[in-house]
Each structure stands twice: as C-alpha cells, then as structure tokens.
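Format notes (please read before filing issues)

Several people have asked whether sequences and structure tokens are stored in separate files. They are not. Every record keeps both together, in the order shown below: the sequence lines, then the token lines. Line labels are part of the format and must not be stripped during preprocessing.
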Amino acid sequence: MATVAYASHESTEERTSRPVPTDLSTFRPSGPIVYLVPALNEVDNLPRLFADLESRPQLVPSSSSIVVIDDGSDDGTAELVESYDGSLPLKLIRFEQNQGPGSAFRAGFAAALEHCPLEGLIVTLEADTTSDLDSLPLMLAHASYDADLVLASVHGGGRMLNVSAYRRLLSAGAGWFVRTLLGIDAQTVSSFFRVYRASLLHAALARYGDGLIREPGFACKAELLVKLTALGARVVEVPVDLDATRRIGKSRMKVTPTLMAYGRLMMRQRAEQPQTEQPAGTGALIA
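Then the structure lines:
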C-alpha cells in the first residue's frame, strides 16, 4: 500500500500506530460524516436507503449530513428528498439535466468540503441499496485509524449476489484494467461505496483542481483512485457483499460507454504520467 505524509492534524506514523478497534459496537468517528448519494430516477430505492441509515443512528453523528445529488431525474426523486420529514439531516443538490456520476461527485465533493473539517469523513453510496451497510462501521474505523481511502470490495473477500455473469466480468475486468495497465493495487475499483478522509480530498483538489474528475461516467471512480494513489494515499479494502435483488429497477451503468471511458482514461494517464509521477519514497504533502 502507498503511504502519505500529512501536513495536517496528525502524521502518518501517529495514525498507523493505532490499531483499528476490535469492538466496533462502541466505535464512534471523531468528526462529522458527509454522505454523498448520486441519484438518477431512484424514487423507489431511496426510501429504503433512508430507512437503512435511520436504523443506524450511530453512523450519522452530530453535525453530519446526507447529500443527495439528483442527476436530472424525472420520476420525483428530488421531490421525495425535499418532502422527507424523518430524522436524517438530508440536503439536496439538483441538476436539471442528466450529467453523469462524474459531475454528481464533483458537485458533491465541492459541497461537502465547504463545511467538512480535515478530520471529517466523506462516504459515497449507491442510491439503490445494493451494498451491505453492515460493513460501514469497519470502513469508517479504517478511515479513522489507518487509511486515507477505504474501498468496499466485492472482489477482495466480498460477494456479488444475484448479479449476471456479464456484470461480474465487467466489474472484474475494471479491476484488472486498473491493476495491470495503471499499476494500482486494488481489487474493486468501480463501486460507488467508499470512505474518504476529507483531508485527502482537500489535497486532491489543491493538486488537480477542476481536473480531479474528468470522466463523466462510471469510470470516474477508477480515475479518482488512480489520482488519489498518485498523491500517496493509503488505501484499504474491506469485504462487502453486493446484492442486486435489493435494487428496484435496472443498473444505470452502460457497458459500451464505460469500456470506452476506461480506454480514454488509460491513454490520458499514460500521456500525463511524466507530469504526475513522483520520485520514489517522497510521498505527498496533504494539507
């Protein structure tokens, strides 16, 4: 795993010297958590996601927020969020037209980092509830103790349940692409379900600016992983099950555009490698 030298609230050595708690029933993150949920026509799925989070109040500590980025839905998704009257601290970002998950994450990260302190955590989630939130406490613990970025990994110990062989192949192929062609040590690279340290994203925006996410589609997740690893981020993968039967409706991922995007990403990264490569052992300063 790559390491990172922090110029912020604590050093890498201080963080890695603290083991992740074995009893997660009492674990509480030290700072707020911002949840980012891109949503395109998810009016049937979001109520179940909200119910999942409502049943886990310890995962939404004080000063946290849940930001739904409505990516041009026409099924009442935005209205559902606006009319919510439950216990969750919901916020809405609304696009009038569909722009893709890359744009949704750009807007979500910008909104989250306006108020999230360096020690805060940013969680990205699928709106369709396919990922098992029972793994979230362990992911948050790793992000609090020994990682800068935590990936939900269906290929690193988790399972893909009730998923077609074609989708399995596409997901595994994305991991192979990133590992083999881009040199990143990760098993699962396309899942939305991740936990980021806010300090890492602040550093990434300072380094890349508006170019942090250039891919508009689902390949944006691989793009982010490549760029954050280039900064020296410490990455940990946690096994998470993904169950397609929990989703109402079809997956939003389009296979052909996604494959083309991976090809673009590979060519762009190779072209930019001389500018982004760092000398071995230097790490990155993250403020």
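For reference, the curators noted about this record: Residues 30-277 form a domain with the Spore Coat Polysaccharide Biosynthesis Protein SpsA; Chain A fold (CATH 3.90.550.10). The two ends are 20 Å apart (CA to CA).
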